[in-house]
Each structure stands twice: as structure tokens, then as C-alpha cells.
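Box 4.2: Ligand-aware structure prediction
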Amino acid sequence: MNLLPAAFATALSLLATTTRADVPAVVTDIALVQSLAQTVLGELGHADVLLPPGADAHSYQLRPSQGASLQRADLVFWVGDALTPWLGRTLAGAGLKGKSVPLLDAPETYLHAFGAETAHDHAEAEAEPETGHDHAGADPHAWLDPANAQAWLALIAAELAAADPANAAAYVANADAGRARIAALDATLRAKLAPLADRPFVVFHDAYGYFADHYGLAVAGALHRGDASAPGAAHLAELRADLAAGGIICAFPEVSHDPKLLALTLEGTPVRTGAVLDPTGGTLPQGAGLYEALMADLAAKLSDCLAPR
Ligand SMILES: [Zn+2]
């Protein structure tokens, strides 16, 4: 007699529960991965992001409250240890209940190495203490190739669908729509950037190899290495000689980094200073649209300085 109403009440409460209750708790490393995860989640849920606006992706320190948020996560989408060793250490150390999904490990991700000169610089960096990760491998800034962002949307959708089969169709449809938007933007950017081939430029840190490869641009050097660590005197002298020699059109500072050293390096050279680049999208409005905004922003800033006048 008591059993039936109890079972009935349980059934009623299950009916009242929308599929939303089963949407996984998603935590991401940086704003652009949050953007891709949010694209896939759509209206079903919200992806959290660990790196605060304007903080450096390579050298951040997690706060204790963020450790707690990681513990609650069902899925952690992040670029990988080569970009954010601080997160790699935490994920390896803590007993994470959820699943860690490093996007660089996605089978469809196209990876390339840093430039030869930078790879040499990295070998020096690895002798330093506290640099516990391998920088000699692939350049982690892989999202700046739109084909990788498209592959990552598909992987995020597959992981969400596996964790929450009731909403699988929505995740896949959201990812497909996102991939189509990126494809359209890619075509627009390709046309916009085509006139900039053979217009060499220098960047603040070695993060733009994928973007340059994909759009046929000419990165002539970087002030800092790919992990944004401080440049050595020999590297600075070499870069300054290249800048003074002529032929390099622009140099671009970067968000959350003091522009003084770059300005000093450019002093007395014919090189123009471009707008401040934001390769991780940390200063852009967060949400599903951020990835496309990031790519459009980079293209606009490069074009504004480099276009033939
Ligand atoms: Zn970087």
C-alpha cells in the first residue's frame, strides 16, 4: 500500500526532470575553449572557464576555489599540457571524478613544431627549474588553424554525447552548425589575408605559426618563445638586427604583456607597431561567439598594419 505511492511519486519527479538535469558539468582552460564548448552545449548548459580575462595562459596559478570547481566537473576540456602546465599538474595530481579531454590529443588535430630558432630557445628554457613540461614538441597554439577548431568541436560533441546520450542529437547539431560558421569565416579571412602574403611581421610571442601557415602569412620572428618566457640577450640582439635590416613591416604587442620591451627593440628601426593581439581571446566577450571573434580580430589587426599603403 505504501510502496505504490512512493514509486508513483518517483515516476512523477522523473517526468518533471528535464533532460537539462543530466547535462554534464563542463570546465575549460581558456576562453576560446570555453567558446567551443559553449557552442556545443548551446542552450542546454554553461561551460566554466579557469583562466581569468587578461591572465597569461602559460604561467597562470590556479586558485583553491578553482580546484573545487575542477573536482565537480564531469568533463574538463583543455588544450593540453604544452599550453597550460599549471593545469596539467593539477589534473595529474588531483583525483578528478570527471574526464580530462586534452584537445591537442584529438586524433584529427593537425600539429606542427615551433620554428627552428624557437625550438633552439626552448632547449635552453628546459634547463630552468619549474619548467617541468616538454616544450620541444608541438606548438600548442593549434586553435589558430580553423581546421583544428572544427575538429575540436566534433570531439567536444562526441564526449558530451557519450556522457549525456539523451541530448546527443543536440550536441552534434550544435557542433555541425559551429563548424559551418567557422568554414564560412575561414573563406572570408582567406580572401582578406591573401594580399598580406610576403608582408613579414614580428610578434610578441611565438603563438601564430598555425595562423600564418593556414593563411600563407610570413612571421619573421618573435620577441618571446612559445611559452612566453623572457628572451635572452643573444636572441634580442639577433631580432633587433633583423628589424633594423628593413623588410619587416610590422611588429605586434600582445595583451597582458608589457609592450615596453617590444617598443625598445623597435626603436630606431623602420618597423611599424601594430595593434595589441589577443591570441587566446582572453579580452573578448566570453561565449559561443568568441572563437570567431578572435579569428576575425586577429585578421583585422594584422591587415590594418600590414596591408600595402
Ligand atoms: Zn602562447
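In the box above, the bound molecule is zinc ion. Confidence is low (pLDDT under 50) at residues 12-18, 116-135.
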